[in-house]
């Protein structure tokens, strides 16, 4: 028997209430100073998902997923397209994320489970930038990338060697941009990325990235 006060995750009402509480916890992290990077405002993530309009069966990837806010919005968007009982399993296979830090990774795993991804094995604890770009083949490419990569970060020595010379920098956001461009499928690929103002006006690696994007 369920003891009064416990959360019953088999109850949709209980899950809904707990999810609201969880969202509040994540939004509170935003104003916690040292944890501000973990949470992108819900209105921003919702807008970006609406613009990309992910479809059931498309592979969606967040290479710096934090607590999973973007992926949660994608899940809720795609759920509206469900027609058969097999659609939920298809969605589970197409939601992918990577988070470098242990705490937000744990929070992202919980977030996925709260939104119907019961076994979130595709949410990995890793640094996406630590894999050489040349090691990614056609099978690694995805339909959609949606992310808010860390701003102002500097990667440890050697990480930049995973990228071609024209993209070599230790600035985290620029490396993520190079990775995103490389990982998109050439036919269906599309991305929505939160970037700092400096990306628009910076030079060196930023110039190379912008030149390639425009071309």
Descriptive overview:
The chain is of the alpha/beta class and 215 residues long. The protein contains eight helices and five strands. The protein has a five-stranded parallel β-sheet with strand order 3-2-1-4-5, sandwiched between helices. α2 crosses α3. The longest helix is centred in the N-terminal third of the chain and has 19 residues. It is globular. The N and C termini lie far apart (63 Å). The mean pLDDT is 84.
Radius of gyration: 18 Å
Instruction: Give a count of the beta strands, DSSP E runs of length 2 or more.
Output: 5
Which strand-content bin applies to the residues?
Answer: 5-15%
Task: Tell me the span between the first and last alpha carbons.
Answer: 63 Å
Q: Give the low-confidence spans.
A: none
Q: What would the average pLDDT be, to the nearest integer?
A: 84
- Specify the number of helices: 8
At a glance:
This protein is an alpha/beta fold and 215 residues long. The chain has 8 helices and 5 strands.
List the defining traits of the structure above.
alpha/beta, globular
Record the SSE blueprint.
Layout: H1 12-30, H2 42-52, E1 60-62, H3 69-79, H4 87-94, E2 95-99, H5 102-114, E3 123-125, E4 144-147, H6 172-183, E5 190-193, H7 198-201, H8 205-214
Parallel strand pairs: 1-2, 1-4, 2-3, 4-5
Helix pairs in contact: 2-3, 6-8
């Amino acid at each position: 028997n369920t003891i009064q006060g416990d959360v019953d995750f088999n109850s949709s009402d209980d899950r809904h209430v707990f999810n609201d509480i969880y969202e509040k916890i994540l939004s509170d992290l935003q104003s916690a100073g040292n944890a501000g990077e973990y949470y992108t405002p819900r209105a921003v993530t919702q807008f970006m998902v609406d613009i990309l309009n992910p479809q059931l069966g498309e592979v969606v990837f967040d290479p710096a997923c934090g607590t999973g806010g973007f992926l949660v919005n994608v899940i809720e968007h795609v759920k509206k397209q469900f027609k058969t009982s097999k659609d939920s399993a298809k969605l589970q296979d197409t939601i992918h994320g990577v988070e470098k830090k242990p705490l937000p990774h744990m929070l992202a795993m919980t977030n996925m489970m709260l939104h119907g991804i019961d076994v979130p094995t595709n949410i990995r604890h890793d640094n996406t930038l630590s894999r050489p770009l040349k090691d990614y083949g056609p099978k690694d490419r995805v339909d959609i990338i949606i992310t808010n990569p860390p701003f102002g970060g500097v990667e440890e020595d050697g990480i930049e060697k995973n990228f071609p010379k024209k993209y070599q920098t230790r600035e985290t956001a620029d490396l993520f941009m190079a990775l995103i461009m490389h990982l998109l499928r050439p036919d269906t690929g599309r991305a929505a990325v939160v970037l700092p103002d400096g990306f628009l006006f910076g030079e060196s690696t930023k110039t190379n990235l912008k030149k390639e994007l425009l071309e």
